[in-house]
Amino acid sequence: MERKWHFLATELIKNLARHVGGEVTIQGWLYNVRSSGKIRFLIVRDGSGMVQGVMVKQEVGDELFELANTLTQESSLKLTGVVREEPRSIGGFELQVTGLEVVSVAEEYPITHKEHGVDFLAERRHLWIRTPRQNAILRIRSEIEHAFRDFFYQRDFVLADSPIITPAACEGTTTLFELDYHGEKAFLSQSGQLYNEATAAALGRIYCFGPTFRAEKSKTRRHLLEFWMIEAEMAYFDVDDNMKLQEEMVFYVIQRVLERCRQELKTLERDVSKLENIKLPFPRISYTEAVELLKKAGQEFEWGDDFGAPHETIIGSHFDAPVFVHRYPTVIKAFYMKPDPNDPKVVLGADLLAPEGYGEVIGGGQRIDDLALLEKRIDEHQLPREAFEWYLDLRRYGSVPHSGFGLGIERTVAWICGLDHIRETIPFPRMLHKMYP
RNA sequence: UCCUCGAUAGCUCAAUGGUAGAGCACCCGGCUGUUAACCGGGUGGUUGUAGGUUCGAGUCCUACUCGAGGAGCCA
Q1: Could you tell me if A357 and A219 lie in one domain?
Q2: ipTM of the complex, rounded to two decimals
Q3: Which residue, of A42, A72, A104, is where some domain finishes?
Q4: pLDDT tens-digit profile of A112-171?
Q5: Is the CB of A413 under 7 A from strand B?
Q6: Does residue A327 contact residue A286 with C-beta atoms inside 8 Å?
Q7: For residue A362, which of A409, A299, A305 has the smallest C-alpha distance?
Q8: Is the shortest CB-to-strand distance from A331 to strand B under 7 Å?
């Protein structure tokens, strides 16, 4: 598939290695300049990488040399030069400059190469994403999203997108953003799952990938008000099939990032051995076993309580790989979760907790396929029956055992990149009281 | 909503209750291999807001505003 675009006048910085000895033009932005009177070093970025252009006064002449002096940080420019291997230079190559075209001289740039506080950077997120670290994160996010899609494509899943505007709460628990739908109440979707169950009954194995909205006043490093979720739903999958698919998916994505994003992981100073050591299958423990584990770790915990973030961290830190916690108490889980036939006090749900304290990245499980039980649960949870008639239809017309899950992209990116805050995993994070820019 | 912490130059931070400072950025000068280059000089302040204590407040007290981290909820 690799093609060489010889007919193009310009080249990406990441491809300069193909042109050693040749003259090429790159187009980008000035990242930094160092000047020594008669020699200048122009560090240029183009989004694909960075390269140093070397300009010697004697060689390029006074006019070009002085032109370079007018350039400020982040000025846009086209730089022409001969590609050389140079171990002293970033990336191992440099450009012996022969030509420079100034596209636009930048005003004084607010983000310097020194330290800045997160508040200052967040206000300038549109510029912050130009920095090498943010660039690396967004490239890894892109690779992760492609990997998920490829994984599902290879396994004959159909991409079936779920609606973003919905008439009712999916689970009736969380706070939703409300809309006026031409006089009707509507909400931004908090999950595509119920719709996924319908498309799975139509297409067999499906997934959707889109934005999700939660209006809770969450203010932690793990929460966004708008985030992206991969949700899959599979007809004829039980709880074990479900976990097997998930671990293969997560493993596949990690291998893809290790294979294709080495440079980006290095930029982030990620300890890649933590990712390389992850093997299949992932450990599986029941909720009850997890409670025992917490008690042994000295935590006060009652069977029947839900795990908080500190508990997830303790459980996750006992394993080198992500760990499935399955068979949660029925009372703390959503109305559609199928009870375990061997022990109806628990459901056939399983969450995947990432290691290194990153907590829950997947929530999933087997769904109730029995009409009468589902009707009973809807009543118990005091949900508006009318809004769920179509969902009950799925049990009236050819009900099958089926399972699915939802994976949070941002938490997955934060974990794989080793970030301490989710706000860096998306180009423009939406957080409590924060939606600028 | 609750708990904890914070706010000083454009940025990152100093300053026993006693003249508000440094590095970076920016401007000027110097330097032919720099790696967040370096060296010399210069510009730059209503110390978040309002009030109080004091001879004197960036510093102590009160309220408020804004922000950060955490809890709950969850991906």
Answers
A1: yes
A2: 0.87
A3: A104
A4: 887 788 888 888 899 999 999 999 999 999 999 999 999 999 999 999 999 999 886 555
A5: no
A6: yes
A7: A409
A8: no
